[in-house]
Specification:
This protein is of the alpha/beta class and 357 residues long. The protein contains 10 helices and 8 strands. Helix 7 runs parallel beside helix 8 and helix 7 packs parallel to helix 10. It is globular and about 50 Å long. The protein binds zinc ion (ZN).
Amino acid sequence: MTTAIIYSPVYLEHRPHGYHPESPRRLEEAMEALRSFGLLDQEHCVIVEPRLATLEDLMLVHDKAYVERVKRLVESGTRYLDGDTYLSPRSFEAALLAAGGVMKACEIVLEGKYINAFALVRPPGHHAGVYGKALGAASQGFCIFNNVAVGVMHLLRRKGLGRVMILDIDCHHGNGTQDIFYESSQVLYVSFHQDPRTLYPGTGYVDEIGVGEGKGYNINIPLPPGSADDAYMKAWAEIVEPVSRSFNPEFVVMSVGYDAHHDDPITMMGLSTQGYVDLFNKALELAASTCNGRFVAALEGGYGMFLAESVAATIASMSGVSLPITSQRTMSKDEVMKRVEGVLMRLKENLKGIWSF
Ligand SMILES: [Zn+2]
């Protein structure tokens, strides 16, 4: 039951200029938590080095001119890609290793070398679209290349897979990922996120369901602020469970942002650490029953003091153990739950005729 953790110290070399929530501390603390919980003992988890994504790899997803522009900006010492997204001298290298890290994670799980893999990478990726900014967002939200999309395209285009599910539980909508796969029926993209009227990037409504071949394969679950563990579980049971069983993925990849934790300083959701573990267990069960347990999780956001513990607790689930954490499951207020029910009802209405509930 060994889980691979894809990690490189180069991920720490993508450095902000002054205070920024997306800082190298996030990974340092997560690694420290893994160590202190005794997970890095070879029996549970093994650290695996990522590889550098090549230009050709990135072009599975991104426009060549965009990749070259990022490289040029980093080389010229430019400090910001946009208002939210900083660059530092080794940012390009870190970004190549982040995308290459998810590719590596997908490869080693597909080859059966590890039961599953967690790509503990940064910079994050799900806001990055083909050309950088996606779907009219004002910025790339700390992302450079779409790591998960590159890994998934690698599975589809080079490894011959035909059906991959991306589960995105970051608190923000993965506008980049939606943009990239919007016309594809090979990728079922399901995103849980905070109501876009209340949070960056302002997209991810229930009526954005994909177009053409991809109609019905893009599923947004925008939850009201204050949504807690029970809201996520309800959405899982009513939407994700039936759709994913019917889609029957050959591989499950999770964009995991821990910023839907009730403790996160930049969002307003109510997941507990235990709630994250529950979501992982659902995803792991889904992968076990559809695709031999092939499951890769890749880090997106998460900026609060419970990030490290949540990373450790969810990685522990992947390797089949539970940590002695004291997290209590959270409950949504009645008025929040009523709004959640409304969202799920509208979503089912939009997907009627494509999936059965
Ligand atoms: Zn986020």
